[in-house]
Amino acid sequence: MFADKALEGLQESFGGLADMDLDLDLNTGTVTLFTTTIVLTAALAYRHLSRGKDGGNAPPHIPSTIPFLGQAVSFGTSPIEFLLAAYEKYGPVFSFTMVGKTFTYLVGSDASTLLFNSKNENLNAEDVYSRLVTPVFGKGVAYDVPNPIFMEQKKMLKTGLSISHFRTHVPIIEDETRTYFQRWGSQGKNNIFEALSELIILTASHALHGMKRDKAHIEVKNIFRKAIQKRRADPNPDDDMLQTLIESTYKSGRKLTDDEITGMLIGLLLAGQHTSSTTSAWLAFFLARDNDLQDKVFKEQQEVCGDCVAPVDYDQLKDMQLLDRCLKETLRLRPPIMTMMRMCRTPQTVLGYSIPPGHQVCVSPTTNQRLPEVWKDFDQFLPDRFIDPEVANSEKFAYVPFGAGRHRCIGESFAYIQIKTIFSVLIRKYKFSLVDDYFPEVNYNTMIHTPTNPVIQYTARSSSA
Ligand code: HEM
């Protein structure tokens, strides 16, 4: 199969050359012989070069006629369509070049197993993420430290994300939502993505978006450092994430430094901000597009919480099953992290292919969550598909909006609580609709796939809302 694919690719690449030769008025026999010789020689060379050191086959490489840039334009224009088409043509493991780097995608549950079960020293996260993340989170945390240390830091953060903490989070989020949306009045059109981004991380997002990144980082660090010092001196401290981190120790017995605590708090805020605000904005548009579904979600709110101004608590969130399914389905069709990446440091084997060191190995939740053989009516927003709990688990890595394995997200429960609380307030307050039937296009220019022109129409459900 591999040789066919290589030949096919080379034929595509050399198609232009054959056309050129025909224009040269040579006799057809010479042209055919010439072209065939080049194609076969190149195919053999390609096949030889693409054998791994252990003699295994390299994954099929999607050919490109553009040196260095490779598939950057095709991928950049519509990455999901590109990956699904490549999957159809080349199967679950394939490579391509972009801006001089080779990316190898693992599509579907079986192939994805390699990435999710890998050890960090083989498929490495720091090599690809540190450059982006460390300037924002600071040194000494996340991808700036050896992975076992980051694993310990994740564990400490998880202690602060417990159910008893969630119980206190719900009224805070609810209160913030009510206060924030007072400015929207009883009806109008407004940018829901911007509003949700601000709501989800009001102060920090202002600080980080309004200034240059490095300056913002220093500024935010100073704010946190003062808060940490104040807290350390407090005889009756609150039981929150800051306190959890102040009291945490590494296995070695060492306590976290102020810088580490600050980095972890900034990391938490940022990891949760773009992911949750983008997901919330898409959820709003999926509901705005489908009146019947929105009515059902509203009915569920009335049944669980009562009237539009009644407060919501943590236990009630669990009863909002339809809202839960809508969020799950939003995360299927629009997972905010479209690709998880690792640097291949040691030779890897998957489904008979050998991946050499230097490839960037990727799994895309967006792609896995749209495979037609796993997801019936894969491109439809059908929250009730999750009534059967087996749907998301039919194949181990078919549904991975929060990743899996050692790098798995620790914020899933918090994100569900935050987004469900916000929507419990919003759906009881407003009826949403699309503006002129416009459902946002996906903006592929941002790392997280945000909605383009995310303006939504809203009308208050009652004057007391
Ligand atoms: C809708 C919301 C969210 C989604 C879809 C999401 C998605 C993800 C994904 C896909 C990963 C795995 C990345 C990889 O394997 O390369 C991840 C990791 C992580 N997330 Fe989230 N996340 C969300 C919210 C949050 C929140 C609210 C927090 C913090 C409270 C958070 C903290 C983290 C952390 C600490 C990691 C670990 C990274 C690692 O170990 O390398 N996330 N998240």
UniProtKB/TrEMBL annotation:
The keyword Oxidoreductase applies. The keyword Transcription regulation does not apply. Heme binds at C409. Pathway: Steroid biosynthesis; zymosterol biosynthesis; zymosterol from lanosterol: step 1/6. Its EC number is 1.14.14.154. Keywords: Heme, Iron, Lipid metabolism, Metal-binding, Monooxygenase, Oxidoreductase, Steroid metabolism. GO terms for molecular function: heme binding; iron ion binding; sterol 14-demethylase activity. It catalyses: 32-oxolanosterol + reduced [NADPH--hemoprotein reductase] + O2 = 4,4-dimethyl-5alpha-cholesta-8,14,24-trien-3beta-ol + formate + oxidized [NADPH--hemoprotein reductase] + H2O + 2 H(+); 24,25-dihydrolanosterol + reduced [NADPH--hemoprotein reductase] + O2 = 32-hydroxy-24,25-dihydrolanosterol + oxidized [NADPH--hemoprotein reductase] + H2O + H(+); a 14alpha-formyl steroid + reduced [NADPH--hemoprotein reductase] + O2 = a Delta(14) steroid + formate + oxidized [NADPH--hemoprotein reductase] + H2O + 2 H(+); 32-hydroxy-24,25-dihydrolanosterol + reduced [NADPH--hemoprotein reductase] + O2 = 32-oxo-24,25-dihydrolanosterol + oxidized [NADPH--hemoprotein reductase] + 2 H2O + H(+). InterPro entries: CYP450_sterol_14alpha_dmase, Cyt_P450, Cyt_P450_CS, Cyt_P450_E_grp-IV, Cyt_P450_sf. One of its GO terms (biological process) is steroid metabolic process. Its cofactor is heme. Pfam families: p450. It comes from the Eukaryota. Belongs to the cytochrome P450 family. This is Lanosterol 14-alpha demethylase. It comes from Elysia marginata.
